[in-house]
Amino acid sequence: MRKIISMILVFAIIFSFTSNASASELIRTGKDESFSFYNEGKLVTVKIRRMGNSAASEVYIDGVLSQKSVGSLTTKTINTKVYDLSAPLRYNAAKETVSKIGDFNSFTTHEPVSNIKIDEKINANSVKSIRRSITDEPVDNTGLSQSYFGGGYYYLGEYGGFYYAPDVYAQLHRKYSSKYEGETKTWRWGENETLGAISAYLSLFLGPSLVGFIVTALFFTAQGVIAYAQSIKLATFSFYYTYMVTIKYKSYYGAWRDMTYWKIENTTAGTTKWKLKSFNGGFGVSNTEMVKAGIDNYVAQK
Fold first, then answer.
1. Are residue 149 and residue 294 in the same domain, yes or no?
2. What mean pLDDT comes out for the span 24-29?
3. What DSSP letter does each residue of 91-147 carry, written as one string?
């Protein structure tokens, strides 16, 4: 039975807004970066490092080293060690396997189970980061209901109860227009490719944040091996959002945001993910502050 990633859920609530992404994905040369996700109930953390024409990755499952990979632009190879053998006889019988990732040769060998553990601080920070991700406003209208306000608006949520107006709650509504900015890249990975090899390969060309975004759109077994052949398409879209804060069916504040997103489609599985690429202008703080501005106007007009 194929085991798949327990995907990170994105809920439509208005308590936060993320605007700290840069306009491009930068590679921090020679410095470890990491990203994490939950797969089959286990915390998976991937450490990656870009060094000149090579990149390395380490995969930890529940804090224990599971895979190590090194990719080279010079030789166009990916060398991966998978630490999954529990007995010497199995280790002696293990053979190297060869596959293709793009125009790279990917070599995989198996070694005895590792007892190397990840720094607990990295694991703790990874869990906090994952928990924060569920508070993001959705990019499109998936999961939202049409607003009573009309005009193409959708309902994001309600907030209020501030100390100076404890009985006042406002509703936040949003509509948007979007524009396709171009397809950036398409990848296809075959069966039995490892999470470590894929991470090392992508790290040769992309920044750590975008590598993590792409990897978590794929489906893996609990052992960190791709569950089945999958294709990924990366594209960019710009969104222009218009917001309205209403109290008792009347508008008390309006705002806008101009943003660009990466869109990742797993065309095999039919799933889609979004990642903020750049914040281009508009209301730059949280949605709760937007709602507060509406309540302030309401109180001032009473």
1. yes
2. 36
3. HHH---EEEEETTEEEEEEEEEPP--B--HHHHHHHHHHHHHHTTSPPSSSTT-EE-
Print the SS3 string covering 4-44: CECCCCCCCCCCCCCCCCCCCCCCCCCCCEEEEEEECCEEE
Rounded Cα–Cα distance for residues 261 and 237 (Å): 5
In contact, 145 and 171? CB cutoff 8 Å? no
Task: Looking at the structure, tell me whether residues 165 and 81 fall in a common domain.
Answer: no
Residue with tokens 């893996």: 220
**In the chain, helix, strand, coil percent, each to 5?**
15, 50, 35
Domain membership flag for residue 204:
no
Query: For residues 169 and 50, what is the distance between their CA atoms, to the nearest angstrom?
Result: 49
Domain count, the chain: 2
> What is the mean predicted confidence (pLDDT) over 283-301?
91
What are the pLDDT digits (tens) for 196-224?
999 999 999 988 888 988 999 999 998 89
